[in-house]
Amino acid sequence: MSIIQAVSSAYKQNAAEKQQISQKTLAAMAATFLAIFLLIAPEMAMAEPWDDVAQSILDIFTGGLARTLAIIAIIACGVMAMVGKLSWQWVIYIVVGLCLIFGAAAIADFFIGAAGG
Fold first, then answer.
1. Are 62 and 102 in contact (CB under 8 A)?
2. 36 and 72: one domain?
3. What is the C-alpha to C-alpha distance for residues 45 and 86, in angstroms, rounded to an integer?
4. CA 103 to CA 107: how far, in whole Å?
5. Cα-based distances in Å from 52 to 28, 46, 48
6. Three-class SS of residue 113?
């Protein structure tokens, strides 16, 4: 047996061992995820904690801090327009972004109402 054949044989054997390890790892990961899901399933049925988290995120995006940042962005646009350094493309981006952020609830209610929900 030549050296090249020996190296090739060892390489093939090593590749087969790696494939077996990865299959065992995949099976262990799948079993772990299944066990975690079965442990969490009762909490998922009670959606109250998720509602609280979602409401907190909504309050962050539409609350006082977001309103203050929106006012600062509009003031910055006004100052830049005053000195002639404003790209009107940025104004459109800012206005559309603010309309989507602060009008998100009305937009969602419109689509939910239109869908009959």
1. yes
2. no
3. 51
4. 6
5. 34, 12, 6
6. helix
- State pLDDT tens for residues 10-68: 666 666 666 566 777 778 878 887 877 777 666 555 656 777 778 888 888 888 888 99
Same domain, 61 and 27: no
Q: How far apart are CA 81 and CA 91, in angstroms?
A: 10
Q: Are 89 and 97 in contact, with CB atoms under 8 Å apart?
A: no
Task: Round to the nearest angstrom and report the end-to-end CA distance of the chain.
Answer: 75
Does one domain contain both 58 and 101? yes
- Lookup: tokens for 40: 């969490």
pTM recorded for the entire structure: 0.49
